[in-house]
Amino acid sequence: MTQLSHNLTGRVYSLLLAPFNAHVVVQVGDIFLETFIPRSEAEKLRVGFEVIASPSENGTTIRAL
C-alpha cells in the first residue's frame, strides 16, 4: 500500500457506506485512491464531489472542498 506524501485534489468516484465507516474511491486524473474513512465524514460526500486527499497518521484523510 502506498502512503500519500502531499495533498491531492480529485473527485469522489465511489462511496459505499457501512454502519461505522465508509469505503471511498477518489479519482485523481488517471489514478484511483482507495481508503476507509469514518461514516460521519463520508455522509458529507457524494459521488462527483470535488475533494482533497491528505496524508495522515492513520493513512489518508478525505475532505470535501
Outline the structure in words.
It is a single chain. It is built from 1 helix and 5 strands, in the order βββαββ. It has 65 residues and is mainly beta. It has one domain (8-64): OB fold (Dihydrolipoamide Acetyltransferase, E2P) (Beta Barrel), CATH 2.40.50. The longest helix is centred in the middle third of the chain and has 4 residues, at 39-42. It starts with 7 loop residues before the first strand and ends with a strand. The model has no long low-confidence stretch (mean pLDDT 87).
Number of domains: 1
Q: Examine the coordinates and then state which fold CATH places here, giving the name of the CATH topology.
A: OB fold (Dihydrolipoamide Acetyltransferase, E2P)
Shape: globular
Number of helices: 1
The radius of gyration is 11 Å
Which series of helices and strands comes N to C?
EEEHEE
Question: How is the main sheet built?
Answer: 5 strands, antiparallel
Structural class by SSE content: mainly beta
**Which stretches of 5+ consecutive residues score pLDDT under 50?**
none
What is the terminal-to-terminal distance?
A: 25 Å
CATH superfamily: RNA polymerase II/Efflux pump adaptor protein, barrel-sandwich hybrid domain
The CATH architecture is Beta Barrel
Helix content: under 10%
Per DSSP E runs of 2 or more residues, the count of β-strands stands at: 5
**Cross-sheet strand order for the largest sheet:** 3-2-1-4-5
What number is the mean pLDDT?
87
Beta-strand portion reads over 45%
